[in-house]
Write a structure and sequence with these properties.
The protein contains 15 helices and 8 strands. It is elongated and about 75 Å long. The chain is of the alpha+beta class. Strand 1 and strand 2 form a beta hairpin. Helix 5 packs antiparallel against helix 7. The strands form 2 sheets. The protein has a 4-stranded antiparallel beta sheet, with no helix packed on it. A 4-stranded antiparallel beta sheet has the order 4-3-6-7, covered by helices on one side. Helices cover 54% and strands 14% of the residues. The two termini are 59 Å apart. The protein has 2 domains: 239 residues, no CATH class; 179 residues, Immunoglobulin-like, CATH 2.60.40.150. Belongs to the unc-13 family. InterPro entries: C2_dom (IPR000008), C2_domain_sf (IPR035892), Munc13_dom-2 (IPR014772), PATROL1_C (IPR057984), UNC-13_domain (IPR052095). Keywords: Exocytosis. It comes from Chilo suppressalis. This is C2 domain-containing protein.
């Protein structure tokens, strides 16, 4: 009898232990084949299949074998496991088969990985030529060599692989394309921000259509996956001027402020903010549980106030509180005024930045945390805000954590842009200790 016939017999007899043993043996037999692909992967990864069809077919054979087993188990699951599901034995057998199916899917993906890895060098070359084609060459023509390469590569795989296995390989190739396009976008840096990145952005849409193939390729929701979203966002950032990126960063910090609950590991700050006549009034009252930054387990905290973005408040300069010595719960009770227009405060981008620092005499001041207030929401600016402007607002303090944030990476690449470099330098002081 075949392995699957043995399994059916064991299930009918309620012999769950024999069923489990038979299933494990069947899966182990076929999973052992993937060891060949893993052992050979270091050899495969730098060789394209042109002139090496034999090795590519061997990988496809392993992937297809795994798919045959998966297909048989899936058929067995449909035909046998849904009949008379009334006992614990039935349910246990069903879980075993479902677990094996998941394992086979994972191993099939791993076995197919060398197929896309081997295509990376010529793919990288094709994307490079796309990006650095003459500016006068339309994107639809500049992308032709890349599409021809992909068509040749995928046509061969489509010939050798079963449909489900080919779809998996197609998804792996799409992932490789996204990585190469993203890498090439970053390599361009700030040298050719307009034409260079605009072309890659157009190419990304053409490539998405290619892999979707009018419904015959990857489903559009798999084409527009999270990885695609990250690459698209990165493209938009590359094309944006520095001032616009700073405003996107500020919007992200405001959103993070709204999501951050109390209590915060970095403490909180208590303020009043309201618009009165021609001035924005800010009362910095106190803070509590500020992180200790001095050797004595305390801090010497002070607060720097700033209105952002600068294009809305070009004449509003930074202001700061006095320093409170040796405390984690400072009380300032200080009032500040910014002479600004009501119209500027009503802008959705307008914000008050409050950063808490520890004063050091011999070294640079240490960053303790920051908080942001959207000015459009404060009393006197927003007619729907609480009528009592004297009610204080407690804000959780935050620090930065993502050192690989795309906006920071892109701004850091703009080495001739003083605004970008100064901003990155300022933000690098605000990262939490790892």
């Amino acid at each position: 009898m075949s392995v699957l016939e043995d399994m059916a017999c064991f299930k009918r007899n309620g012999d769950i232990e024999s069923l489990k043993k038979s299933l494990e043996q069947a899966v182990a037999k076929f999973l052992s084949e993937t060891a060949k692909s893993r052992a050979a992967s270091s050899y495969y990864k730098d060789i394209y299949f042109a002139g090496q069809n034999k090795t590519t077919e061997e990988i496809c054979t392993i992937v297809n074998n795994l798919e045959y087993v998966r297909r048989s188990l899936a058929e067995y699951d449909d035909e046998h496991m849904t009949e008379h599901m009334s006992t614990a034995t039935d349910e246990s057998a069903r879980q075993l088969v479902r677990g094996a199916l998941g394992t086979l899917d994972a191993r099939s993906t791993r076995a197919a990985a060398p197929l896309s890895a081997r295509a990376r060098p010529p793919l990288r070359k094709a994307v490079f030529h796309l990006a650095w084609s003459p500016d006068t060459l339309p994107t639809t023509q500049a992308i032709t060599p890349l599409l021809e390469f992909l068509d040749q590569h995928l046509s061969s795989l489509n010939t050798w692989l079963l449909p489900r296995a080919f779809t998996r390989a197609l998804a792996g190739c799409w992932s490789a394309v996204l990585k190469e396009v993203s890498s090439q976008a970053d390599a361009g840096g700030a040298e050719r921000p307009r034409v260079y990145h605009h072309r890659l952005r157009e190419a990304l849409d053409l490539l998405a259509d290619f892999f979707h193939a009018e419904g015959k390729g990857l489903p559009m929701h798999e084409v527009h996956n999270m990885e695609w979203g990250r690459v698209e966002q990165r493209m938009q950032y590359h094309q944006a001027p520095t001032e616009e990126l700073l405003e996107i960063w500020l919007a992200d910090r405001l959103a993070e402020q709204m999501r951050t609950p109390l209590p915060s590991p970095y403490g909180s700050i208590l303020v009043r903010v309201y618009f009165n006549h021609d001035s924005l009034c800010v009362e910095v009252l106190s803070a509590r549980d500020v992180i200790p930054l001095d050797p004595n387990g305390l801090s010497d905290p002070f607060v720097v106030l700033e209105l952002l973005p600068k294009r809305l408040f070009p004449k509003a300069h930074e202001q700061s509180t006095n320093v409170q010595k040796k405390t984690l719960n400072p009380i300032w009770d200080e009032c500040f005024e910014f002479t600004v227009s009501l119209e500027s405060c009503r802008s959705p981008q307008a914000a008050l930045s409050l950063s808490v620092w520890d004063r050091d005499v011999l070294t640079a001041d240490d960053f303790a945390g920051e908080a942001f207030v959207a000015l459009a929401r404060v009393p006197g600016v927003n007619s729907h805000a609480p009528p009592d402007p004297l009610r204080p607002l407690e804000l959780p303090l935050m620090q930065l954590h993502d050192r690989n944030h795309p906006i920071l990476q892109i701004l850091e690449s703009r080495t001739t842009d003083k605004m970008a470099i100064d901003f990155v330098k300022k933000q690098k002081l605000r990262f939490a200790e790892q």
